[in-house]
Amino acid sequence: RQLLRPLETLPHTLPTGGGPTIANRPECSVRLARNILDSQQVTLESIAWFRVSHLVRDVGWHQPHEGEAMQADSKKKFRAVLVGGLVVGVGAAVTLAAWNDSEFAQGTFASGQFNLEGSTTSSTEGFADHPSSEDAAALTFEVNPENMSPNDSVYAPFSVRLDETTTNDASVDITAAAGGTTTGMSYRLIQTEAFGCDSDTAGTDLVPAGTALGSVSGAAAFDLAKGAAASAGEATNLCFIVTADDDMAQDQTGTSTWEFTATSKDS
């Protein structure tokens, strides 16, 4: 309304010259302005169109004399500047500022540790790493295993556990390999409650009796639990029972190497 108000005060006649102009009929300008305002559709385009059309029609209907050309040209330039200023002013009025902010998140990732160790002397002491067949723990048999004859049996205990650095529980599988001559020799592997192994030892079969040395046919896996913070896990006690049968040849020498492979479980 502030922009259109000057239209109501336009002069009814031009300073010089003749001919009808829109300024000679101010009621047209006012009526058009009121129609726009009453419809509540005053937009940048409608205001600009109204001002420009007013200027064009005003200039078009009145043909100035030669002496008035400079004055008419000045009027056109002045009104064009007003229209341009109107567009820029309204455009600036709808420009909005915006704030922005950011939030970040970060994660740190690290791997755990896992280590299996064994002992031939106790379920609480003597544990060490035996990572290869060349570094295998030497089993201590209760009966001399180097002077066997048919129907003899020898016994050796072994204990395994997860060390204090381990961060996951484990499942343990058993494999075996034989070397030299082991004809007529078999074994049994049992899981016992306490450390120790002899003819009276009882427990759960992991490898059944009568299994040939170097074989693990029918072997069962077993589980190990990690320990509490900075402590080793509880040990699992094993008992090897090796037996010579009637097919054992004289003066033969052989070896059997067992591997216990621990596989970590989800923590």
Q: What is the fold's blueprint, element by element?
A:
Layout: H1 26-38, H2 44-61, H3 69-93, E1 116-119, E2 153-162, E3 170-180, E4 185-192, E5 204-212, E6 222-224, E7 236-244, E8 254-264
Antiparallel strand pairs: 1-2, 2-7, 3-6, 3-8, 4-5, 4-7
Helix pairs in contact: 2-3
Description:
It is built from 3 helices and 8 strands, in the order αααββββββββ. The protein has a 5-stranded antiparallel beta sheet with strand order 1-2-7-4-5, with no helix packed on it. It is α+β, with helices and mostly antiparallel strands. The longest helix has 25 residues, at 69-93. The chain has helices at residues 26-38, 44-61, 69-93, and strands at 116-119, 153-162, 170-180, 185-192, 204-212, 222-224, 236-244, 254-264.
Largest sheet, strands/sense/barrel? 5 strands, antiparallel
Tell me, rounded to a whole number, the average pLDDT. Answer: 78
Instruction: Note poorly predicted spans.
Output: 1-24, 58-63, 85-92
Structural class: alpha+beta
- Compressed to H and E, one letter per element, the order equals HHHEEEEEEEE
Give the overall shape, derived from the CA principal axes: elongated
The strand line-up of the biggest sheet is 1-2-7-4-5
The termini sit apart by 75 Å
Q: How many individual β-strands? A: 8
Strand % is 15-25%
The helix content, as a percent range, equals: 10-25%
